[in-house]
Amino acid sequence: MSKSSQTVWLRYGRWVVLSAVALVVASEGWSHGVASSDQGFLARAEGVHAGPFLYLGAKHMVTGYDHLLYLAGVIFYLRALTDVVKFVSLFALGHSITLLFGVLAGINISPYFIDAIIGLSICYKALENLGTIRFIDPKLAVFGFGLVHGFGLSTKLQDLALSRDGLIANMINFNIGVEIGQVIGLVILFIGLSWLRERQDFDTVSRNTNVALFGAGLVFFGLQMTGLFVN
């Protein structure tokens, strides 16, 4: 095999491998909904249950691969903790608004449609990180996609026919739990990214990571659009 052929194979082979990895990650990432083991409790819960709803909100965020993939993209190149706080606060604000408003006002949108947009949000952030696109100010994009992510969870919760007894307090506690889980996830991500930045091959690693991030978002989008048309 000639040297030029090896270079071409390595270049495109890497993309194939990364896409395959992204597919595996994405296939594990359909956890934006509520775990089946928790659905029974949520459907039966009447009255205020502060502790359990705090826990379930935090659990949802820590295990919500779609949220974490997007947030990983958001903070990927942020070195200052103050910048991380700014961007994540905008995402949390958007997420909180639509989560609470969607459930309390009974706004129900197809979860497949919302999750497809969430997949696109991951793709968009990856492409933005790669320097391919930048349509709007990154802070505005993060806030807007935060609104979409909040609607994604609110549609899942509404499918469980939650009791109206104590609903407001329970949703506030659930949302607080989500933000606690978000902080836990971000601390781990920030530590990992800080370590990566010390590597001499960070430029290559960052490019490959964002390619994989784009692949995961694209697979997520494709599966959700398939579900939208099939159902």
Describe the largest sheet. none
The level of helicity is over 70%
Structural class: mainly alpha
Number of helices: 9
Question: Uncertain runs with pLDDT below 50, 5 residues or more?
Answer: 3-10, 23-31
- Beta-strand content estimate: under 5%
Average pLDDT taken over every residue: 81
Commentary on this structure:
This protein has 9 helices and no strands. It is mainly α. Helix 1 (3-27) packs across helix 9, helix 4 crosses helix 8 and helix 6 (111-129) packs antiparallel against helix 7 (138-158). The longest helix has 31 residues, at 167-197.
Q: What attributes characterize this protein structure?
A:
231 residues, mainly alpha, 80% helix, 0% strand, globular, disordered N terminus
Note the topology.
Elements: H1 3-27, H2 36-44, H3 50-63, H4 65-75, H5 81-105, H6 111-129, H7 138-158, H8 167-197, H9 202-230
Helix pairs in contact: 1-9, 3-8, 4-6, 4-8, 5-7, 5-8, 6-7, 6-9
Summarize the structure.
This protein is mostly helical. It has helices at 3-27, 36-44, 50-63, 65-75, 81-105, 111-129, 138-158, 167-197, 202-230.
